[in-house]
């Protein structure tokens, strides 16, 4: 796949060439395509070559990535093909990059396989936090299951409250007849009716 830009400044006949390959794997039912190499051509010769890494998708899909670049801050999916290659003098970055080499229908991209990793830093942090919360919950459930009843530690040590039984002779001592006016009345000597023991 060649993108021809023509003359740009000192660059005569600038062309960006994308070399795509298809392959089929035994474990996969469908074939896959991958971007194998990127070449920069100007002045009618190849000037820089980058090897592409991790740019692949099923042949019936397209590939999409926010940044495809040779810079480390964008995860460097484009790597100079050799230490002596002039590619190390170039910085190439494609923004909102989407490519599909095969099975194109009606001039539109198919469903895109994104380059976002399944284990990005945000996802890893979420998994770690979920694991910590799960451990705390498991520890709390473990403590609740093994919690012993505290009833036996708070049983009343003394006998329950009760009213002492009043003896007959106490009842006799508690009242004394008064005989001053012919009428019979009684005066309580002892005002205590009962005792409470705790």
TrEMBL record:
Its main location: membrane. It is found in: Membrane. The keyword Transmembrane helix applies. The chain crosses the membrane at residues 122-145. Residues 117-154 form the V-type proton ATPase subunit S1/VOA1 transmembrane domain. InterPro entries: Ac45_acc_su, VAS1/VOA1_TM, VAS1_LD. Pfam families: Ac45-VOA1_TM, VAS1_LD. One of its GO terms (cellular component) is cytoplasmic vesicle membrane. Keywords: Membrane, Transmembrane, Transmembrane helix. Gene3D superfamilies: 2.40.160.110. It comes from the Eukaryota. Residues 1-102 form the V-type proton ATPase subunit S1 luminal domain. GO terms for biological process: regulation of cellular pH. It is a single-pass membrane protein. One of its GO terms (molecular function) is ATPase activator activity. Belongs to the vacuolar ATPase subunit S1 family. This is VAS1L protein. It comes from Serilophus lunatus (silver-breasted broadbill). The lineage of its organism: Eukaryota, Metazoa, Chordata, Craniata, Vertebrata.
């Amino acid at each position: 796949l060649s993108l021809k830009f023509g003359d740009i400044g000192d660059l005569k006949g600038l062309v960006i060439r994308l070399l795509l390959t298809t392959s089929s794997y035994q474990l996969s039912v469908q074939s896959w395509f991958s971007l194998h190499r990127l070449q920069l051509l100007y002045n009618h010769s190849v000037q820089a070559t980058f090897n592409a890494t991790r740019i692949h998708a099923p042949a019936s899909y397209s590939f999409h990535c926010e940044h495809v670049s040779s810079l480390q801050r964008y995860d460097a999916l484009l790597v100079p093909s050799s230490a002596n290659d002039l590619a190390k003098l170039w910085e190439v970055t494609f923004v909102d990059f989407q490519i599909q080499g095969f099975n194109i229908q009606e001039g539109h991209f198919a469903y895109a396989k994104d380059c976002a990793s399944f284990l990005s830093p945000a996802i890893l942090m979420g998994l770690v936090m979920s694991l910590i919360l799960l451990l705390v919950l498991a520890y709390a459930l473990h403590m609740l299951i093994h919690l012993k009843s505290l009833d036996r530690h708070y049983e009343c040590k003394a006998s329950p409250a009760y009213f002492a039984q009043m003896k007959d002779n106490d009842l006799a001592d508690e009242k004394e007849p008064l005989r001053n006016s012919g009428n019979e009345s009684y005066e309580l000597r002892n005002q205590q009716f009962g005792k409470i023991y705790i």
